[in-house]
Amino acid sequence: EAKAAGKRQWSRYQPQLQAGLVERHELNESLDTAIAESAFALYYQPIVDLASGDLVAFEALVRWPHERRGMVLPEDFIALAEESGQIVPLGAWVLERAVTEATAWQKLSGDRRTAGGRLPLRVSVNVSARQFRDAGFVDTVRRVVESSGIRPGTLILELTESVLMRRDERVRTDMRTLRDLGVRIAIDDFGTGYSSLSYLREFPISVLKIDKSFIDGLGLSEQQYALVEGITRIADTLGVQVIAEGIENDAQRQLLAAMGCPLGQGYLFARPLTVEQAGALVQGDADLAGLQDGRP
Ligand code: C2E
Ligand code: MG
Ligand code: MG
Ligand code: MG
Question: Start and end of every EAL domain (predicted)?
Answer without folding.
Answer: 24-286
